[in-house]
Amino acid sequence: MTELDGDLHLQLAGLRPAMDSFLRPQAIAVVGASSDPGTLSGLLFANLAGSGFGGAVLPVNKRHPSIQGVAAYPDLVSCPVVPDLVVVCVPAPAVGAVIAEAGRLGVKAVCVISAGFAETGEAGSDLQDALAREALAHGTRLVGPNCAGVVGGEGDLRFNATFGRIVPPPGNISVISQSGAFGLGVLEMMGERGLGLRNFVSIGNTADLAIADFLLYWGTDPGTELVLLYLESVPEPRRFMRVAKQVSARVPIVVLKAGRTDAGRRGAASHTAALSSGDVAVDALLHQAGAIRAESVEEVLDLAALLSLHHRYPGRRVGIVTNGGGSGVIAADACESNGLVVPEVSPATADRLRAWLPTEASVANPIDMIASASEGQYREVAQVVGQSGDVDVVMVVFNVPVLTPATAVARELAAAHNHIGAEVPIVAVFLNRDGPPPSLRQAGIASFVFPEGAARALAAAVTWNEARDRLPAERVQPRTRPASVGTFLAEARLRARDGWLGFGDTEALLESYGIAVPKSVTARTPHEAGLVQSKLRRPVVVKVAAPIHKSDIGGVRLDVSTPGAAAEAVRGIRADLEAAGVADLGDELVVQEQITEGQEMIAGFNRDPLLGPLVVAGLGGRLVELMGDVAVRVSPLTDLDVTEMVQSLRSYRLLTGYRGSPVLDLDAFHNVLKAVSAVAEECPEIAEMDLNPVFVLDKGAMVVDARVRLYMQPGAGPVTSRKWGS
Question: Residue 62, Cβ neighbours under 10 Å: how many?
């Protein structure tokens, strides 16, 4: 079981009585149960009554003495036992009274199927808030409203309290869905693929219990070996990330997140804001949470087929065994395109394979046994490859049978699987009309219809194992905020233009957090600019001091090497600004020591309304948004976050000596990112920070240009809401 930290352990202890009542009840009441199978309440009650639940089933209906042949009760008080779980199927205005009655009886768990709440608008939202207050007053916990119900229990207490007609057989997968209809559809597809269900919860509007609460419970549930989530938004995203990070150390969490959109990029005021909005932020959250993000329902089911049988996929080397050369090549391409490796087998392994195969066969990897391969050859070749030490996984691809039936191959693969052992799993792909025989899964072999799905799922499983096996990353301890920073920012706000700090204030803030900047002096006249250049005695940059994208409007001049050129640069910049209609931005300019070596990168943060600061690292310069080579993480960053961010960039090789270029100071760039995270955590007055470019040098790193925006009013911050990520 997962060892939770102290605070989460206490949270789970408080949740457990209600969670047990939701998922392990011994008596279930359905308020509003109907005898009409054409209604949702009638269908739900029929499913519950017909699910073999051996506990008390208690229909509650004021108008009918029996429901579907089961004695009914006018209210909860009249029931012969106090139910552990109450399922509510009455019109929205009547739900509050049911919750109050359940609360007075001491019921810990109420699932509200009824719709007509926050999903309908402001009035419904007020009604939903009233439900939550009523439940809180009695110590009752809620699932829903506007949900499809719950599946749980085990043995003779297994129950289906949903309006879904088909649920999978008992198993080790727990499922939670924000869409009731979609979730029930996934259950049907799980059943078709032979995947077993531990629990299902349709979370609905999340008036009370949230996804993180169920993750906490399932993280310490020995019967849950895999969690599938369908999300449209993420309530309490920071808590979700914290809980999921600990739970995913034991239980894989597969997430299908709907709502990929670039709408959040529109109108972004800085590169950092544009690059860290929308789906990029979702990916950052799920990555740091340790979750596996699926791109489709098919991928969710493929991952479920794989991870519900085995968790340990510790290596990327795949041995491919097939009876068709073309399918072997397709499988190899699928593996390598997903980051897996298809290595050559050793000479010793090749010799052992030749002993079992005809001369026409290929003992390279993929290993093509040719179309005449027998079931015995499948077994022996799979065993040789699996025990060779050359691979971490054996992928067997079986084409439409010519001489050998699929069931016979499946039987022999099961024998090979038992012989090899779980350290080198077998993954099977059966390319035939009927798909993989069910006996494969019963033998513990994950099976697929196409090699592409097998390769994607396998790559995701290996990545999850790699992340889980890393040592826990230490949280980057925020630096102690300098005592003067609060006063400084309050004063700087008075000087800011539309919240943007001026050049001098920005430079002072960076220096207070140990972020290096080049020598810079402000100038107001061409003569002053010339004097500054002569004192610096080296090529300089002359640029507008205002926090704008300078190159877009001619606000910068490079390679200025004489006082006269500096004076001319001021005049030229002001002429360009006037032509652009922003002459007022040219009142103050900066003459800055020019950095000509190193690599241009970007760093910064933007505050998401709910998630908080999102830190960005990437390739910098003028084309930063066009190139899009960035990594995003949720602050505060760990040392591992910082390292992963930089190493994940396509431009990472430019920092490490690409094609003979100098090796640059990675530690210095890491320190800039840690400082950015510290500013984000310690300075809530700051809405966003954009450092572009950051020149990473052979020794050190310099921020050449920076933009920092404060919230316009003291104490202002992002608008908050319980849900995020749609």
Answer: 11
- The burial class, CB within 10 Å (0-12 / 13-18 / 19+), for 441 is buried
pLDDT tens track for 532-549: 999 998 999 999 988 877
Q: Give CA angle at 318 (437, 248), nearest 5°.
A: 80
What number of helices (H) and strands (E) belong to the chain? 24, 29
Helix, strand, coil shares, percent, the chain, to 5: 40, 20, 40
* Exposed / middle / buried, residue 365 (Cβ in 10 Å: 0-12, 13-18, 19+): buried
Residue 724 above 60 pLDDT? Answer: no
**Which residue from 215, 227, 181, 424 is spatially nearest to 321, judged by alpha carbons?**
424
Predicted confidence (pLDDT) at residue 130 exceeds the cutoff of 70? yes
Q: Is the pTM higher than 0.90?
A: no
Give the per-residue pLDDT at 268. 42
User: Rounded CA gap, 508 and 515, in Å?
Assistant: 10
Dist CA 544 CA 589 (whole Å)? 5
Is a pLDDT exceeding 90 seen at residue 131? Answer: yes
By C-alpha distance, which of 366, 399, 371 is closest to 382?
A: 366
Strands (DSSP E) found in 573-621: 589-593, 599-608, 612-619
CA distances to 112, 602, 622 from 666, in Å: 54, 13, 22
User: Under 8 Å CB-to-CB from 185, ≥6 apart: which residues?
Assistant: none
Domains along the sequence of the chain with CATH = 6-251 (3.40.50.720), 318-469 (3.40.50.261), 485-593 (3.30.1490.20), 599-710 (3.30.470.20)
Give the tokens for residue 303: 């991952």
Q: Is 280 helix (H, G, I), strand (E, B) or coil?
A: helix
Structure tokens at 129: 């808030």
Q: Which of 261, 194, 258 is nearest to 230 (CA)?
A: 258
CB 133 within 8 A of CB 14: no
Phi then psi dihedrals of residue 408, to 5 deg: -70, -40
**Residue whose tokens read 């001091």:** 545
